[in-house]
Amino acid sequence: MGHRHSPAGRWVLRGIDLALPARALVRVEGGNGTGKSTLLRLLAGIEAPAEGRITGRPARTAYVPERFPAALPLTATGYLVHLGRIHGLRTAEAKRRAGEWLTRFGAAEHARTPLAELSKGTSQKVAVAQALLAAPDLLVLDEAWTGLDTAARTELDRAVAERVAAGATVVFVDHDPRRLAGAADLTLRTGDGGVHRATATPDTAPLPGPRTLIEAEGPPGAPLPQDLPGDPLRERGTGTAPDLVGFTVPTPYSDALLTALLTARPPWHIRRVAPVDTPERPGPPEPIRPSEQPEVSETS
């Protein structure tokens, strides 16, 4: 990817070469004017690189901008159905999903309200709903939590975990360092004209966010489940309950993990769900895994 000139007069994002892992949550950090939003728009296909190319972008890619253009001559539902049709959904299915997402984000009462009459917070709920409507394989969120109330922010955390659990890649920027803390599989930092993988040591790494312990019992002799949402820590019980397993996972992933355990074949029986009071510091980040997710490279 070549350089791009920002409105502030800086040249940003020169010489990037990276591959995003599949089924991963990717946090993007960096100071103002270092190219965070530019990177997200490039990944989402909103902008094209001045040089080089982006390959492997999934057909279903969704994007939530920092500012939602609400002055459109449509109601909330009309807008969502229109976007759903663009993504290939039938009208009836688009209406059903629109209703579900508006309900989840606490905006169902505004389904027939024109976009131009919505409050900033409700407009943001519609913006998030349109991105989730078609179950994207790549979800790009640029300060998507800004303007949402507490309940809607929690619901977006849960929706992000669901997309990752379903195999998607989610890339996000948020000004709150606690947002989805401890859940990111990869952290990228913009600065010095490029994008760099953030590194941390056990002594300097921040404490992760809240985590949840799920104790479940599987069939006798069943192996520990693999490839579970949130990549939980696993600890098998001993003594009188050898088949009892404790799964510790970032709290936003707890619902997705419960669903995965209950719908496994054969299913696991949930014995206890409890918050973890004292999270451990995370270890060093693992290498970036190659995948067929978008690759950004420079041609010179």
Description:
The protein is α/β, with parallel strands linked by helices. Helix content is 24%, strand content 23%. The protein is built from 6 helices and 15 strands. The strands form 4 sheets. The protein has a 6-stranded mixed sheet with strand order 6-7-8-4-9-10, sandwiched between helices. α2 (76-86) runs parallel beside α4. It starts with a strand and ends with a strand.
Chart the SSEs and their pairings.
Elements: E1 4-5, E2 11-12, E3 18-19, E4 24-29, H1 36-44, E5 53-55, E6 61-64, H2 76-86, H3 91-104, H4 120-132, E7 138-142, H5 150-165, E8 169-173, E9 186-191, E10 194-197, E11 211-217, E12 233-236, E13 244-250, H6 254-262, E14 269-276, E15 295-297
Parallel strand pairs: 4-8, 4-9, 6-7, 7-8
Antiparallel strand pairs: 1-2, 3-15, 5-15, 9-10, 11-13, 11-14, 12-13
Helix pairs in contact: 2-3, 2-4
Describe the structure in brief.
The chain has about 300 residues and is an alpha/beta fold. The protein has helices at about 35-45, 75-85, 90-105, 120-130, 150-165, 255-260, and strands at about 5, 10, 20, 25-30, 55, 60-65, 140, 170-175, 185-190, 195, 210-215, 235, 245-250, 270-275, 295. The chain folds into 3 domains: about 1-60 and about 135-205, Rossmann fold, CATH 3.40.50.300; about 65-135, no CATH class; about 210-275.
State which percent range the strand residues make up: 15-25%
Number of strands: 15
Number of self-contained structural domains:
3
- SSE string, helix = H, strand = E? EEEEHEEHHHEHEEEEEEHEE
How many DSSP helices?
6
Query: Mind telling me the C-alpha Rg?
Result: 20 Å
Distance between the termini: 9 Å
What is the typical, i.e. mean, pLDDT? 80
Model regions low in confidence, pLDDT < 50 over at least 5 residues: 1-13, 200-207, 279-292
General shape? globular
User: What order do the strands of the largest sheet run in, or round the barrel if closed?
Assistant: 6-7-8-4-9-10
Biggest sheet architecture:
6 strands, mixed
CATH architecture annotation name of the largest domain: 3-Layer(aba) Sandwich
CATH class category of the largest domain: Alpha Beta
Helix content: 10-25%
Structural class: alpha/beta
- CATH fold-level label of the largest domain: Rossmann fold
CATH superfamily grouping of the largest domain: P-loop containing nucleotide triphosphate hydrolases
